[in-house]
Amino acid sequence: MCGIVGYIGMQNAAPILLEGLKKLEYRGYDSAGIAVMQNGSIAVSKVTGRIAALAEKTEHGSLLPGTVGIGHTRWATHGAPTDANAHPHTSNDGRFAVVHNGIIENYLELRKELMEKGYHFDSETDTEVVVHLMEMYYQGDLKQAVMRTSARLCGSYALGILCSDEPNRMFAVREASPLILGVGVGENFFASDVTALVAYTRNAIYLDDGEFAELTPDGIQVYDCTGQPFRKKVSRISWDIQAAEKGGYEHFMRKEIMEQPRAVKATMAPRLKDGQVVLDDMEIDLHGIRKIVITACGSAYYAGCAAKYAIEKLCHIPVQIELASELRYSDPLIDATTLLIVLSQSGETADTIAAMKECQSHGAKALAIVNVVGSTIAKLADYCLYTWAGPEIAVATTKGYTTQLTALYLFALYGAKELRTVDEAEYQKKLQVLKALPKLMQQALDMNPNLEQLAKKYHRAHSMFFIGRNTDYAVALEGALKMKEISYIHAESYAAGELKHGTIALISEGQPVIALCCNDAITEKTMSNIVEVKARGAEVLAVACRDNQKIVSLADDMIFVPKVEPLFSAAVEIVPLQLLAYYVARENGCDIDKPKNLAKSVTVE
Questions:
Q1: Which of 10, 24, 231, 350 is deepest in the core (most CB within 10 A)?
Q2: Which has the closest alpha carbon to 440: 566, 548, 318?
Q3: Over the stretch 211-253, which tens digit does the pLDDT of each residue have?
Q4: The domain that contains 408 carries what CATH number?
């Protein structure tokens, strides 16, 4: 999730761009750059690293005079964090500069086409195809070039575009990536977040998908996808700057919970091509693999627990889940017939790095699933699959977990195809379920307006039990972790069938039990466990599909989720449980984004 900003007016643009980029730092980034129009040409300055380095390089913008410019902070996806991969990107003839937030899914085919026509590329990014398309289509009409370029792009993008031939205007384009226009007096702006605007104007126009805008010092004209001009409502920004950084949400965690459908789609979409799962040009030969070991820590470990069912069912290969902190010291029975799958959001988790090195020393090949390009784990791995979730600010992961799950589901389907362990009809059926996950996750968010009230009921609990069977048990693990991490309520998860083997001794009057009942194959068994705990006075909050009338009549309270194939259900089921934990923590006055004693990236043993 990069950040972009643009300015056109009477003031020097570079200092405004730098200040706007600073306000976008919270989004996370690894490089930054600005481009400013200067006397019929475009001057560009960019750095790997922090905005402070860019400010120093440009002497706080004084070395790039000019009143029109664009800026960018980059979170690396396509290509490592380098000066060459940093934005803005310029055309071969130097007439165009572009900044981009999002992912161009068809960039490989566009890149090939452009190279065949003689355009050369200076970066590894998907973005550079945009600026070369602009050069190719420009024939004296900048608006037409913008339209023709946009029509060729598949994916998500917010674009800022400069052309040296037309120094008194710039264009901004939106498709499935946030973009906001700032309306000033004798000056106008665009940015990916109001954070970058509120210091200069409180008047904003929110572009919708498929719209683009022409900005001049004197005004803003918005167009639909056919190029027809129309009027857009100007909204008043009432948030303070701190709230604006969170997109209007009270906490980053809430914002990131709500971002999950989009993050899962961003992780999935570029890997689904022509009815197949394509894993970033990786060639993993699974025919000689006899065992898969998944290793990770915390929520990443629980993502592995949930995905184990899908991988085993679809690939017919046994899957072993290991805590990295245990695996590194266990002298594991691993050899060249083992595929190690390593999960880490940051790619810098110390225990996971050590476990990975240990297994590789035994001959195992390692597939890393990480969110940070160029991280240690990404570099050490034999294969790497990026989640493309964008930066996650809250310490307790939400979209990190669900995008890791998504990557593992993609791997499971990839393996099934490679090994021919499912027929084509079943493969396509499962693929359609996978494609539907973002929509189903959004439904899970929308269909539970009662979560705040449930939090008011349960927030005073001293402990909670989460129970489930099979895939539901895997979700219970992460649901309990979210609750304990941010609310500080003792919460434990149990395989529901194990209750009678000891844990049921802890059930007393009023004890909250969250029962997951979304897997139809074992719902009747879980219901018997619900009856057992209710007989001992427990308050049962059940998570189930709306059409499960038996559960509705049995439970004290309900959380509903849309019906989904159990193999892939974890990504949908966890969403309302994350939100429940959030509301409970808020009721208890906890520091939700920064829970006590926890760090975002655990780089020590």
A1: 24
A2: 566
A3: 999 999 999 999 999 999 999 999 888 766 666 677 778 899 9
A4: 3.40.50.10490
Domain count of the fold of the chain: 3
Three-state DSSP class for 427? helix
Q: What is the DSSP string of 471-532?
A: HHHHHHHHHHHHHHHHH--EEEEEEGGGGGGTGGGG--TT-EEEEE---GGGHHHHHHHHHH
> What is the number of other CB atoms lying within 10 angstroms of the CB of residue 416?
24
pTM here?
A: 0.74
Q: What is the mean pLDDT of the chain?
A: 92
Q: Is 291 in the active site?
A: no
Closest CA to 496 of 479, 521, 476: 476
Note whether 279 and 196 are same-domain residues.
no
Most confident of 7-11, 348-352, 562-566: 7-11
The mean pLDDT value for 286-295 works out to 95
Tell me, yes or no, whether 510 and 414 share the same domain. no
Percent of the chain with pLDDT over 70: 97
CATH of the domain at 7: 3.60.20.10
User: Same structural domain for residues 384 and 328?
Assistant: yes
Active-site residue, 2 included: yes
- The answer to the question of residue 593 being in a domain is no
* d(C-alpha 336, C-alpha 331), whole Å: 15
543 beta partners? 516, 559
Check whether residue 293 and residue 418 sit in a common domain: yes
